[in-house]
Automatic annotation (TrEMBL):
Cellular component aspect of the GO annotation: TAT protein transport complex
Subcellular location: Cell membrane; Membrane
Transmembrane region(s): 14-32, 70-91, 103-132, 152-176, 188-205, 211-232
Species this protein is from: Kocuria tytonicola
Family membership: Belongs to the TatC family.
Compositionally biased region (Polar residues): 256-270
Protein name, as recorded: Sec-independent protein translocase protein TatC
Membrane topology field: Multi-pass membrane protein
Record keywords: Cell membrane, Membrane, Protein transport, Translocation, Transmembrane, Transmembrane helix, Transport
Pfam family, one: TatC
Protein purpose: Part of the twin-arginine translocation (Tat) system that transports large folded proteins containing a characteristic twin-arginine motif in their signal peptide across membranes. Together with TatB, TatC is part of a receptor directly interacting with Tat signal peptides.
Length: 270
C-alpha cells in the first residue's frame, strides 16, 4: 500500500475506535451512579469502625467533572475490544506468519492476565482504603476529594493489571531467543527482591496489605513464566538437534551446498 492509503486506513480505524469509545462513554454515563456507589462502598463501611470518611466535591462543577471523567474511562474500557481489534487489524498485514502467531499468543495470554490483575485490584480496594485511613488520628475525619479518590482507584487497577502482564513479556523474549530460562532462573533471588520493591513503590499507599496483594501474584506468575521458558528452551534444543541430525550438519566440518538446500527447504516448510 502507498503511504496515502496507509494514512487513509489509519484514519478509518481511528474513526471506528472513536465512535466505539463515544458509545462506551454513553453507556458509562448510564452506569455512573451504581459505579460510584460501588467504589465508595469501602468508605461507607468505615462508619462501622467509628471512623468518618466521605467523598467531597471541592467545587460547584466538581461532581459534573467527575461524572465526565468516569464516563470517558468506562467508555475506553467498554470499547477496548473494538479499538484493540482495530489496532490489531492495522498492524497485522506487516507481520510474518510466525510474528502473527506470537502476537496472537501474547494477546491471548496478556488480556486474561490484565483482567485478572484488575480483579485483584478490586478485591484489594477495601483493604487498601481501610489500611490507609487507619493513619488518621483519633477524632479526625477523612473528606476525600472525588477526583483524587477516582485517580487512586484507577491507579490501583492499572498498576495491578500491567504488573500481571510483565511475565508474559519474559516468555515473549524467550520465544524470540533473546532470554533463556536458565538466565532468568539464576537471578530469582534478585527478582524476588525487585518485585517486593516495585510492589512497595507501585502500591498507592504505605500499607503492607496492598503490597502483598500485588507481590504474591507477581511472584507466582514469574515462576510460572520461568517454567514455560525452561520448557521452551528444551523444546527448541530438541528441534535444533533433530534438524541437525536430519541434515547431517556438524560444527567440525564444512556445510555442503546440498545440506544448505536441505536446511532451507526444512525451514521453508515450517
Amino acid at each position: 500500500m502507498a503511504l496515502r492509503e496507509h494514512l487513509r486506513e489509519l484514519r478509518n480505524r481511528l474513526i471506528k475506535s472513536a465512535v466505539a469509545t463515544v458509545l462506551g462513554a454513553v453507556a458509562g454515563f448510564m452506569v455512573y451512579e451504581p459505579f460510584m456507589q460501588y467504589i465508595t462502598e469501602p468508605l461507607k463501611r468505615l462508619a462501622e469502625t467509628g471512623r468518618t470518611a466521605t467523598i467531597n466535591y471541592s467545587s460547584v462543577g466538581g461532581s459534573f467533572n467527575t461524572m465526565v471523567e468516569v464516563s470517558v474511562v468506562l467508555g475506553l474500557i467498554l470499547a477496548s475490544p473494538v479499538w484493540l481489534y482495530q489496532l490489531w487489524a492495522f498492524i497485522t498485514p506487516a507481520l510474518h506468519r510466525n510474528e502473527r502467531r506470537y502476537a496472537m499468543g501474547f494477546l491471548a495470554a496478556a488480556i486474561p492476565l490484565f483482567l485478572g490483575g484488575c480483579a485483584i485490584a478490586v478485591t484489594a480496594l477495601p483493604a487498601a482504603v481501610y489500611a490507609l485511613t487507619a493513619f488518621t488520628p483519633e477524632g479526625g475525619s477523612n473528606f476525600v476529594e472525588a477526583g483524587v479518590y477516582l485517580r487512586f482507584f484507577l491507579q490501583l487497577i492499572l498498576t495491578f493489571g500491567i504488573a500481571c502482564v510483565v511475565p508474559v513479556l519474559l516468555v515473549g523474549l524467550n520465544m524470540l531467543g533473546l532470554l533463556s530460562g536458565r538466565t532468568v532462573l539464576k537471578s530469582w533471588r534478585v527478582v524476588v527482591v525487585i518485585v517486593l520493591v516495585v510492589a512497595a513503590m507501585a502500591a498507592p499507599g504505605p500499607d503492607p496489605v496492598t503490597m502483598l496483594y500485588l507481590a504474591i501474584p507477581l511472584l507466582v506468575l514469574f515462576f510460572v513464566a520461568v517454567g514455560l521458558c525452561l520448557w521452551l528452551d528444551r523444546h527448541r534444543a530438541r528441534k535444533q538437534a533433530k534438524q541437525a541430525a536430519a541434515t547431517g550438519l556438524s560444527a567440525d566440518r564444512g556445510t555442503s551446498a546440498e545440506q544448505l538446500r536441505s536446511l532451507g527447504s526444512t525451514a521453508a516448510g515450517e
